[in-house]
Structures
1.
Amino acid sequence: MILNSHALVIESIDYHMDKQRLIFNSRDELLRIDVERIVYFEADGNYTYIVTCNKLKSAICMNLGQMEEVLAQRLKEKKSLFARIGKKYIVNLGFIYKINPLKKQLVLSDFSNFTYQLEVSREALKKLKDIMLQIKF
């Protein structure tokens, strides 16, 4: 599924159950995603893939920098759920299982339903490791 950015409208909605969702609306289709179920965003040129914890992957016609701005504007206090990792990814910090800079490997998992292994630069992983060590859970 690829949503065209020409008619793209993005907004966040608060629901009764304190869930926040992103709505991606194009001329042809609408995509609604619970923010906490987004595992990562992946850049692919002018497109960004959104990968969720139920293993769905959707393409949005927006580059990763634009997606980063949207998250900062729309999510307000929940924007700290996500961190930009190098040129290719924005990841949900809550799903980080393992950071291995030597192997250039980032593993994201919910410990029961999915595990994603991403190849990321050593420098980006070192920065991510520092961020994770500063977070107080």
2.
Amino acid sequence: MTSRINSAVSLSIMSLKARQGSGSLISLMAMDLIEIGAKVGIYFIPFLFALCFHEFAHGYVARLRGDNTALLMGRLTLNPIPHIDVIGTLILPLAAIIFASPIFFGWAKPVPVNERNLKNPRVDMFWISLAGPLSNLFLAVVGAFLMGLIVRYFMYLTSARALLSILDIFISTNLFLGIFNIIPLHPLDGGKVLARFLPAQWNYKLEQHEQVTSMILMILVFSGLLRFLIGPVTWTHDFLVNFALGGL
């Protein structure tokens, strides 16, 4: 009898420990999901908005220069859905967040531009292409301005420090997108900006080899060789933040 009771007690204890273990596992999973959700809010949402604003800027300037293609195709909007590329906008960035990858990279669908609608395609494409990186610089300036406002007038809010952290990431994200896209290689905006100053034959050859330069860019990204962008991003970030805070 005693051995049966002890066995029953042992089984009860084992069952209790198993339940506690499964409860701990569920708790850990819940904490992981909360952490991932927080990272999505802090990193992915600003990244998504920066991408959409970047593409919107291309379409908006194209319209100013005479091409309504983006408008007609529903791309002249800040709604992220028309701009989403499943791999570049969702899978790669979210995978980087979930698996804590040191490489955070992505892209949106390029806004279509019909050069035949432009009065001076060579000059107009220069401004249309430059609009994307400049839009990210503009957002970085806005982020720094908002950071300055919070530090001066709203630090009493309980959410102030969290907002400052989000804005800090928002500024860095936009600066990285802007500086990365100005690299003078096709298919980046910088390649089209450079085309304004190159002989037409040279630019034609570069466009013909766009797949090669795309592969070079991917190698630069996934090999970590783009670390050289950290310098200009950090310097510009510190300049904007210090200027916005007025030396505080």
3.
Amino acid sequence: MGLVIIKCGNPGDDEHLEHLAQYMSDDRKLMIGGNGVNYTDAKQIAKQMQNVKEHFGKTKNRSHVQVILPYHSQDMTVEKACDYTRKAAAYFDDDYQTLYCAHQPDEECDNYHSHIMINPVNINNGKMMETDPASLKPFCEHVEKVTGERNRLKFKKNDE
């Protein structure tokens, strides 16, 4: 069974956006991409997401939503991990700015995994992304279609 891990940033913690963008683009990355952001520059990513928040007056709301998708399959390859990452992140393309990457196994996580950082402010209407289990169920179903693996939702604090 797969896992969809959700971490929500704290209100006003926009410094964490740049830090997370740097983390996602470090040497472990197999690929990186984005929607509505210049995914090659961590400072620019944070600023572009902040600009959308300011435009809609949402600067006091949670700074970001992070999705982590660990891939436990024994036959996982670099190509599959990158493909799954792109397809999973595409779920948010119409409404949210995203930064996404696939990471190789390392000392923190012994399998391939994806990170998707989402600006929770909808770029079309300024509404905040709902992050309760019922609202995220369609995304989990999307991930199941992408990976062919049933999954469950798990919420974590940012320091976990």
4.
Amino acid sequence: MNRTAQQLITIILVILTGNLIFLIPAACTQEMASERSQMGGQQGLTSVQSHAQEEPLSLKTCLNKALKDNPLLSEAQLGVKAGEKVIDSAWGKHLPKLSLDANYTKRQDSWPYIPAESASLAPHFSDEFSSWSLVMTLPIYQGGQVAAGVELAKLRKATQESNLSLTKNELIANTINAYNKILQLQKLREAACSSVSAMENQRKNSRLLYDVGRVAKVDLLKVEVQLANEQQRLFSLDEGIANMAGMLRYLMGEKIVVLGEVPVLSDKLALPEFTPDFDLAWKTAQKKRPEYLIASTNIQEAEINKKIALGKLFPSLSAFAVYMDQYGYTPYYKEANYFAGFNLSMPLFEKSAYDEIAKERILKSKAEKRLDAVENQIRLDIQTAISSLRESKNRVLTAGQAIEQAEESFRIEQNKYESGAGATVDLLFAQTAYITAVANHYQALFDYNAALVSYRKVTGALEEYLQ
């Protein structure tokens, strides 16, 4: 068989195999979509792993598990419980105090440990004596400081509850975004699998054509470089999926015991219908946004602190009752006594008290300015979230049309290549354009869902995802 016949047979084989090479990337098989890249094992790096026996996780399941097991949320819940005890402690200052005091003294000389009660009742002397007493004090009036302290404790508990809501919102938002990011990366991996498969077959064909002298070596090198780039992209996607899977497990309060283990997710990236409303979002944020509630509470807290500082200028009145036993040992003598009365304290002048009142007034003004800043920030966040929703939704629709156009262009280039009228480079460009369109589509889908999460986070309505 002469050389011309060999070249002809080789070209026919290339054309025949070419019909099987350039399949539409969207037709990447389910087996390919479920594989995990083996490149990491060959390079001594981590590869993505998945357990077939693991039940698929829905987004709602992940959120419920995160709210149940995440230690950050448990920490915030303990802060609320501690706030309840602070209220009990502040209210307990209304109640009487009871204490037991004891004393023992040894002196070199005798001492009148019981003074003379009258001219006919002499004092009692001893160089060794002791006593014990039971003392009860009851606060009657403290300038309103005790009642204000209870109100302050309640407000600080409310702040702890708002901090709990803030932590909860962050946890929900991060869990949703991590879940959706894995879904996006898995779709990109499917497209990357298709691209790698097509490039591997193209390299084989280019090698055959190069062997028979139909293409230059530089064309073969271009294909090999492109294949290496696609393989690296696939490997990067595998690592990205593994990292996001670790993040999702961390948010759910799980410990990472298997490196690169990816949970099976049951939900899909979608384009939910949603119509944002600025005025409604602002009203909802005033009721539910933790940052706004904290800023509002800080103003009330500053007002109560001012009342407490002002209360230090008012008189304080308390009652007391004491029972006492006294003992002398040389000679031995014992005497019991009791007494009761009232204590009145009237502050006349204390400069630091006036300075503290002035300080609390300044802090209240500061808290009011902080609330203004929070309001402006919330309005900006709402506007930004609505803008992101509109922009990303438009990109989703545009990317969907781009996929149809890229798919049609790829089909045309494939037919031209099969008929011998097209060039390999044009076919590769069409294939790359299709994969890029798919990537842009799922990126826009992820951005839209992330913008929706941001909108609900701004308004404090993230718990809608739990319903």
